[in-house]
Amino acid sequence: MTESIDRFITVPDGLKLHVRIHGEGKPGIPVVCLPGLTRNLLDCEDIARILAAPPYDRRVVTISSRGRGLSDRDPQPERYTIPVEAGDVISVLDQLGIKSADFIGTSRGGLILHVLAMTHLDRIERVVLNDIGPVLEVEGLRQIQGYLGSRRAPTNLAEAAGILQATHGAEFPALGHEDWAGMAQALYREIDGRLMPDFDPDIAEQFRTADLSKGLPDLWAQFALFAEKPVMVVRGEHSRLLSRQTVAEMARRHSGCKSVEAEGQGHAPLLHLGSLADEIGAFLKR
Q1: How many C-beta atoms surround the C-beta of residue 153 within 10 A?
Q2: What does residue 165 show for φ and ψ, rounded to 5 degrees?
Q3: Terminal CA-to-CA distance of the chain, rounded, Å?
Q4: What DSSP string describes 126-185?
Q5: How much helix, strand and coil, in percent to the nearest 5, is found in the chain?
Q6: Residue 25: exposed, middle, or buried by beta-carbon count in 10 A (0-12, 13-18, 19+)?
Q7: pLDDT, tens digit, for every residue of 65-97?
Q8: Cis omega before residue 52 (within 30°)?
Q9: Who is most buried in 99, 169, 177, 271, counting CB within 10 A?
């Protein structure tokens, strides 16, 4: 197994972000993984280990955004925004000496990449968008709002895995017992003697109370900036957030856009299951 290194990198407003590097010292363009709304770098652990090992042998950098995992929580919750988090990514790259990278963006991580396309396109080489695109379906957004506010508090990790399976199992028939257990370990942490979701509650509250009556503006203009970049979009077979119609339109507008459907998964797919890791590794290989 490839060893990993943990670092805590201070961004311009003083917060420290947890960064894990797999395959430190390996040559070539690194891969940077950006997790979803309430996820942290543990969400990328399996795909990062795979990409850092033979036959891919990549340096893989995973980042917990502010307020997630072991990264500092922001005393000003209004800064939990995609543009601020995009700026944090650039700060991490600068401090690691990374001029450009391949990126894997899951859900909110993919939205961050759309912002970086506007502000720092030169830092992006190849893009993998995991169950995210320029159009977000309101049904999927409301589903996320619903489960952010409804999960009961587990007393141990086994119970946490059961809650996750009860909540998401219908959309993830491909997951087995070990997958649910791994997800629980990635999403929960003991804080002050209690097992808690491993993110600042202000993040969930901010999203849970968002007005979705008119949907969200599309990001086709930002997606168009990827025109000269190889793009791969992974869609969960049962995803309610990213529609097949949007994926088809992405392929129509971008001739270099490769699409893959994750069978037996919803939002957002685990990228180490089935053939996904090999397809991503092949796509990122030069």
Answers
A1: 12
A2: -65, -40
A3: 23
A4: EEEEES--S---HHHHHHHHHHHTTPPPPSSHHHHHHHHHHHHGGG-TT--HHHHHHHHH
A5: 40, 20, 40
A6: exposed
A7: 999 999 999 999 999 999 999 999 999 999 999
A8: no
A9: 271
| Torsion sign over Cα 173, 167, 268, 211 | positive
Mean pLDDT, range 258-278, rounded to an integer: 96
Q: How does pLDDT run across 9-40, given as a tens digit for each residue?
A: 999 999 999 999 999 999 999 999 999 999 99
Greatest CA separation found in the chain? 52
Position 184, amino acid: A
State whether the Cα torsion 7-125-253-263 is positive or negative.
negative
The token pair that represents 133 in the structure block: 């695109």
- Residue 75: the pLDDT is 97
Which pTM value belongs to this model?
A: 0.95
Query: How many Cβ atoms are within 10 Å of 257's Cβ, its own excluded?
Result: 22
Structure tokens at 59: 């340096």
Tokens of 132: 């995210």
| CB contact set of 156 (below 8 Å; sequence gap of 6+) | 195
